[in-house]
Write a structure and sequence with these properties.
Blueprint: E1 9-11, E2 20-24, E3 30-31, E4 43-44, E5 48-54, E6 58-66, E7 77-84, E8 105-114, E9 117-125, E10 129-134, E11 144-152, E12 155-163, E13 169-177, E14 189-197, E15 209-220, E16 223-226
InterPro entries: DUF1349
Pfam family, one: DUF1349
């Protein structure tokens, strides 16, 4: 199966390279409530690659990301961002993050460092933010992580994928978010994104968070599209 990298669109400085990389500067984030009170509450400054499709067509997505230096700062994060832009703001970015009425809804799921430890992390934003952390499996490589998201009825199910010593793949369900595919909601367009963020609320300023994307595929009504 050939790659369809040309269908990816970079946002906030993300550029197609080989290998595919994201470089998140300090103070980049996708957020409804910024951790720094000096900043506007709505942030959409993280570099990301997006694949756009109708919400109704989405079935699942899978990605493997690698941060060779890990996620050393609190709030360092990377993974999937599923974004539903509003009609009033169809193309949010760092310069146009929106406000309480126009900012996109989103789900972020992947890994994040908090209190010096890297966790599995999911944030769901439907005008209110719902954040959860879950411990990674003992011995799991935090530098290279595989993530899957699956549509299940009206829900979005998020998973971390790990391999046993004999190579068997195990999918650990981490969240089931009930509102993502509600039939009575007019969320017609979906961005399936890989993103990286370095909010750096404590102003450590250690440079950029560098993340390689080793795998990225999306399954919709037309089948599997391998993007990376």
């Amino acid at each position: 199966m050939s790659l369809a990298t040309e269908k990816l669109v970079g946002v906030n400085g993300a550029v197609v390279t080989n290998p595919m990389k994201l470089s998140a500067k300090p103070h980049t984030d996708i957020a409804r409530e910024a951790g720094d009170p000096k900043l506007p509450p709505h942030q959409f400054s993280s570099p990301l690659f997006k694949y756009v499709l109708p919400t109704s067509s989405f079935r699942s997505a899978r990605a493997t990301i690698r941060a060779r230096d890990g996620y050393p700062l609190d709030w360092d994060q990377a993974g999937f961002a599923l974004v539903w832009p509003t009609a009033e703001l169809p193309d949010p970015d760092a310069d146009h993050p929106g406000d309480a009425n126009t900012a996109p809804l989103y789900v972020k799921t992947g890994v994040e460092t908090f209190h010096g430890k890297t966790w599995g992390s999911t944030v769901a934003n439907k005008r209110e933010v719902d954040w959860s952390l879950y411990p990674l499996s003992e011995g799991q490589d935090t530098q290279s992580v595989t993530i899957e998201v699956v549509k299940y009825g009206e829900r979005l199910v998020t998973m971390l994928v790990r391999k046993t010593e004999n190579g068997k793949e195990i999918k650990d369900i981490t969240r089931a978010i009930p509102w993502c595919f509600e039939k009575d909601e007019k969320r017609e367009v979906l961005w399936v994104c890989i993103y990286a963020s370095r909010p750096d609320w404590e102003n450590v300023l250690k440079g950029n968070l560098e993340v390689e994307i080793e795998e990225f595929e999306v399954t919709d009504d037309n089948g599997i599209t391998k993007l990376i």
